[in-house]
Design a protein that fits this description.
By secondary structure, the protein is α+β, with helices and mostly antiparallel strands. It has a domain at 40-109 and 170-331: paralog of FGE (formylglycine-generating enzyme) (Alpha-Beta Complex), CATH 3.90.1580.10. It has helices at 2-12, 15-31, 40-47, 51-54, 98-107, 114-118, 130-135, 176-185, 193-201, 328-342, 365-372, and strands spanning 57-60, 63-67, 82-86, 89-92, 120-124, 137-139, 145-149, 262-268, 283-286, 307-310, 319-320, 324-326.
Length: 373
């Protein structure tokens, strides 16, 4: 009887209005179908094939190298070329994936990301459904961005979407605070800009890309077509892609350094022509994203040296991160090697064994005099 009383007003409505009510109901219920409705055991089973494989690090030997690029027209701070030095460290082979961040959220259930706290995050407009565009988003100064309510790490395009089918994609909608918290939880830290660029270059200083100076097709996920309406996806991906969708980008087997999603670093970002004391707090992001292009015709030029600055609470559909770790034992080994090079080594010959039959005795005196004559 109660059910009839509840449904009676809906039955009297027009068909179109009833359809919209049902559609809205399904949308709301699906939007709350987030990761935390699953038990820890279910999550472990779901992530079993995705978590351990992507959780690896590569050793970076460190040393002096060339950072930046010789492009006087660039105004992002990547110019001019200069010398930098980093100590040995470790860097994540892949960006942090949805699966890894899901593990973190299951362990730290009380932690709320910046997007969750703010109630929204930035999403590319063409990726947003018409329903979300009308009811759950607001426009920005850039027409291709929408501030979508409910967009966060596990709902990348807003309510009604879920990252459960994209476990090996880079986690996005993470702020500097979120990236730093995750790295601390995992026993690591965010890399500095110099460390990030050193790991991307892999012994190839001063070149445009991690693999060299010449652009190569299908090596990174960038925008192809007329931005923002036409993404031809000639590289096989429209929007984000898995972290291993493309081959390793340098000779140290580092994946997804360029393209796909920007990555946070721990380095402060400063404008070149403004007094640093007057600038708001920003941090450097590296790598470019799927919204950027190889030549800078839309948004940023995707190359190793390029950079962007954002406030710590910023989150968007194209921003992720990877972690680094200090290597004090490698630093000590490097110091010992440098000291060995600086200190000349004197090799001492072992004492010679003199056998009786090998010893040359002087001839008798009588014979010696004859020889002298």
């Amino acid at each position: 009887m109660r059910l009839v009383i509840v449904l009676l007003p809906i039955i009297k409505m027009s068909f179109v209005f009833r359809f919209k009510i049902i559609q809205l109901f399904l949308f709301i219920t699906s939007s709350f179908n987030c990761s935390f409705s699953l038990s820890s055991d279910d999550v472990d089973k779901l992530l079993q094939q995705h978590y351990d494989f992507k959780d690896s690090m590569r050793q970076q030997f460190g040393g002096r190298f060339t950072i930046g690029i010789n492009d006087p027209q660039s105004d992002t701070g990547e110019y001019p070329v200069r010398q930098a030095e980093v100590r040995p460290f470790y860097m994540d082979t892949y960006p942090v994936t949805v699966a890894q961040f899901w593990k973190y959220k299951m362990a730290k259930k009380k932690y709320r990301t910046s997007a969750e706290t703010n109630g929204y995050s930035w999403v590319l407009a063409r990726l947003v459904s018409d329903l979300i565009r009308r009811r759950w988003s607001s426009e920005s100064a850039d027409p291709w961005w929408l501030a979508v309510k409910g967009a966060q790490w596990d709902r990348p395009e807003g309510p009604g979407t879920h990252a459960r089918t994209r476990l090996d994609y880079p986690v996005v909608h993470v702020s500097y605070h979120d990236a730093r918290a995750y790295c601390q939880w995992s026993g690591k830290r965010l890399p500095t800009e110099e460390e990030w660029e050193y790991a991307a270059r892999a012994q190839l200083p001063g070149l445009q890309y991690p693999w060299g100076d010449k652009y190569k097709k299908n090596r990174m996920n960038v925008w192809q077509g007329k931005f923002p309406d036409d993404d031809t996806a000639l590289d096989g991906w429209a929007g984000l892609s898995p972290v291993d969708a493309f081959p390793s980008q340098n000779n140290n087997s580092m994946y997804d350094m360029l393209g796909n999603a920007w990555e946070w670093t721990s380095t402060r970002y400063y404008e070149r022509v403004v007094d640093r004391k007057l600038q708001e707090l920003k941090y450097v992001l590296k790598g470019g994203s799927y919204m950027d292009t190889k030549d800078g015709s839309a948004n940023y030029v995707v190359r190793t040296a390029n950079r962007m600055g954002q406030v710590p609470a910023y989150s968007a559909h194209n921003v992720g991160f990877r972690c680094a770790a200090s290597a004090p034992h490698l630093v000590q080994r490097q110091r010992m090697t440098e000291q060995a090079k600086e200190t000349p080594t004197t090799t001492r010959r072992p004492p010679k064994i003199h056998r009786l039959e090998e010893m040359a005795f002087p001839p008798p005196r009588s014979n010696r005099k004859k020889e002298e004559l």
